[in-house]
Design goal:
Blueprint lengths: L5 E9 L6 H11 L3 E12 L4 E6 L4 H10 L3 E7 L8 H10 L5 E3 L20 H4 L6 E2 L3 H8 L6 H15 L2 E4 L7 E7 L4 E7 L8 H14 L4 H17 L13 H4 L16
Parallel strand pairs: 1-2, 1-4, 4-5, 5-6, 6-7
Antiparallel strand pairs: 2-3, 7-8, 8-9
Helix pairs in contact: 1-7, 5-6, 7-8
């Protein structure tokens, strides 16, 4: 008898290049042996050069998309990325409360690399408190951590301060991604009790979607019951390799290679074996 496959859910934006958002998340989930399923919060108009526009899909669209998936399949974990508009905060919070027993991760996509804000700036200061105690882990990058706390996070010490502050307010572990540090790339995990640093050599390649790749890989590892610090270390290693293997798709930033996303690499789970139920 065929075993029932577990799905990992991405709640995020649609990127037509597949370089980030729901399309990249679901590809990463498949790389780990899970089925990737998605709820689209917003549709972006973009290419590898930058985001030109986006359109938010508001309630009841999110709840309707979720109900169709949840009534039909096992969800082994959930990741939230681009919300698109402040009206999506409440329906996403309701979805999170409905999924109590699985790892839940938020990678708070607030602004595109080309400078366009992807969430109403007025919603940013209250974002953490709106999701208090609803996530297992937050994964902001340095800039996002600074915007969420209202303070800078441009050095290791300020990254630590931001991680601890967000963790206290969110009731969750926090990884502040330090890929934009000038000399080395350092991810800082604060698990609520202590800091863990994960350092890699600085790669100069400008690659789209690395934050999505890291957070989706981290969720897949957590869903596979890998301990948090070990999962962050492995996701950091895999992201470093993904940057090294990035390829050119268009005239702008590089993207994650299809070979990087192909199932069967390290940490791959055979189909059907990832079901925790």
């Amino acid at each position: 008898m065929t075993s029932r496959l577990t799905a990992l859910l991405s709640i995020a934006g649609y990127d037509p290049t597949s370089g980030a958002g729901v399309l990249l998340d679901t590809a990463v989930f498949r790389r780990f042996g899970y089925q990737g399923v998605g709820i689209i919060t917003s549709v972006t108009v973009q290419n590898t050069v930058g985001v030109k526009a986006f359109f938010c899909l508001r309630q009841p669209s999110l709840r309707t998309q979720y109900r169709a998936l949840a009534e039909d399949m096992n969800l082994g974990g959930l990741k939230v990325g681009m919300l698109g508009c402040r009206e999506n905060i409440l329906p996403v919070a309701r979805i999170l409360r409905d999924q109590k027993l699985v790892p839940k991760l938020i990678d708070p996509v607030l602004r595109s690399s080309s400078g366009r804000w992807l969430l109403d700036k007025k919603a940013v200061p209250g974002l953490v408190s709106n999701f208090k105690n609803l996530f297992t882990v937050w994964t902001p990058n340095m800039d996002e951590a600074g915007w969420l706390t209202g303070a800078g996070a441009g050095s290791l010490e300020t990254m630590k301060e931001a991680a601890a502050r967000i963790a206290g307010e969110a009731g969750a572990a926090v990884v502040v991604k330090g890929g934009h540090l000038p000399k080395t790339a350092v991810n800082i995990l604060f698990d609520g009790a202590r800091f863990h640093l994960f350092e890699k050599p600085k790669l100069r390649a400008d690659v789209h979607g690395t934050g999505c790749f890291f957070s989706a890989a981290l969720l897949a590892l957590l869903a596979s019951q890998v301990p948090l610090a070990q999962a962050v270390g492995t996701a950091t290693d895999l992201t470093y390799e993904a940057i090294r293997e990035a390829v050119r798709l268009g005239k702008g930033r590089l993207v994650i290679s299809p070979e990087t996303l192909a199932p069967g690499g390290p940490h791959y789970l055979p189909v059907g074996s990832a079901n925790p139920h």
